[in-house]
């Protein structure tokens, strides 16, 4: 190929492809470009200019195996405020506790006065803690005429969220003709009170129902029917789910 000058004349050679007066390599380049244009199909958004990248993402997720959980007994009990009004509080019924406890935030909400009372608390594996105040509470049931007054040790924290995850109860077939001690037992929530063994067994009544396969127990109490025990196997929204992503990137050029 001859270099370009002002007095440039067309090539003296004839193209072997089209027989025109230019170098054969120029015609081969055009053919290659034509082939590429036919084989490459690219979709670019109307507002895209210059070069961009097209991504194709594929997400795969595997649900965890359904498993049983243990539902702890919770109830709604009405507690009297300093003004005389009653406020519903969420109580955890614990037959293994020697004392009753109330959360500090609940004491503030009820605007109750505290009494200086020192007590040592020993838990599992000899884990010790202490409390320095107590509160006198008047409790009553929403469904019966049961009521009582008890001293509760004041703690900043009683236990974690109960239950830990939202439960799917759509297949549990809970009888509709009963009054539950806690209608939203399947919803995670904070515990305001812990009612210990001093009251636990006094609140029980005779009627007791169980589900097939030794699942949940519906125990009648003065606070209403409490649900506790092993739940049917279920998957929760918070169960770990192995997930991976496949990504394909294609470089696009748009003139």
Characteristic terms for this protein:
2 domains, mainly beta, four-stranded antiparallel beta sheet, Cathepsin D, subunit A, domain 1, elongated, six-stranded mixed barrel, 255 residues
H and E string: HEEEEEHEEEEHEEEE
- Ends: how far apart? 29 Å
Kindly state the number of beta strands: 13
CATH class value of the largest domain: Mainly Beta
Task: Give the strand order, joined by hyphens, for the main sheet.
Answer: 3-4-9-5-8-7
Which blocks of ≥5 consecutive residues have pLDDT under 50?
A: 34-44
Description:
The strands form 3 sheets. The protein has a 6-stranded mixed β-barrel. The chain has a 4-stranded antiparallel β-sheet with strand order 2-12-11-10, with no helix packed on it. The chain has a two-stranded antiparallel ribbon with strand order 1-13. The two termini are 29 Å apart. The chain is built from 3 helices and 13 strands; from the N terminus they run H-E-E-E-E-E-H-E-E-E-E-H-E-E-E-E. By secondary structure, it is mainly beta.
SSE layout and pairings?
Elements: H1 24-39, E1 50-61, E2 70-71, E3 74-80, E4 86-93, E5 101-103, H2 104-110, E6 115-122, E7 128-140, E8 147-155, E9 193-195, H3 197-200, E10 204-210, E11 217-221, E12 224-230, E13 243-254
Parallel strand pairs: 4-9, 5-8
Antiparallel strand pairs: 1-13, 2-12, 3-4, 3-7, 5-9, 6-7, 7-8, 10-11, 11-12
Question: TL;DR of this structure?
Answer:
With 255 residues, this protein is mainly β. Helix content is 11%, strand content 38%.
């Amino acid at each position: 190929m001859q270099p370009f000058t002002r007095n440039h004349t067309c090539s003296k050679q004839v193209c072997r492809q089209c027989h025109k007066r230019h170098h054969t390599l120029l015609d081969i380049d055009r053919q290659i470009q034509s082939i590429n244009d036919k084989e490459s199909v690219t979709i670019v958004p109307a507002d895209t200019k210059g070069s961009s990248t097209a991504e194709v993402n594929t997400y795969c997720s595997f649900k965890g195996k359904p498993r049983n959980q243990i539902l702890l007994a919770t109830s709604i009990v009405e507690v009297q405020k300093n003004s005389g009004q009653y406020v519903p509080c969420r109580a955890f019924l614990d037959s293994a506790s020697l004392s009753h406890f109330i959360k500090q935030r609940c004491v503030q909400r009820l605007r109750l006065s505290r009494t200086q009372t020192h007590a040592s608390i020993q838990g599992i594996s000899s884990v010790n803690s202490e409390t320095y105040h107590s509160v006198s509470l008047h409790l009553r049931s929403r469904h019966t005429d049961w009521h009582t007054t008890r001293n509760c040790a004041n703690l900043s924290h009683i236990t974690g969220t109960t239950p830990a995850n939202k439960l799917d109860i759509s297949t549990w077939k809970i009888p509709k003709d009963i009054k539950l001690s806690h209608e939203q037992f399947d919803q995670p929530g904070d515990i305001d009170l812990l009612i210990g063994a001093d009251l636990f067994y006094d609140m029980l009544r005779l009627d007791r129902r169980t589900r097939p396969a030794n699942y949940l127990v519906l125990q009648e109490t003065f606070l209403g029917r409490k649900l506790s025990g092993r739940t049917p196997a279920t998957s929760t929204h918070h169960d770990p789910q192995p997930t991976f992503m496949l990504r394909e990137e294609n470089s696009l050029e748009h003139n």
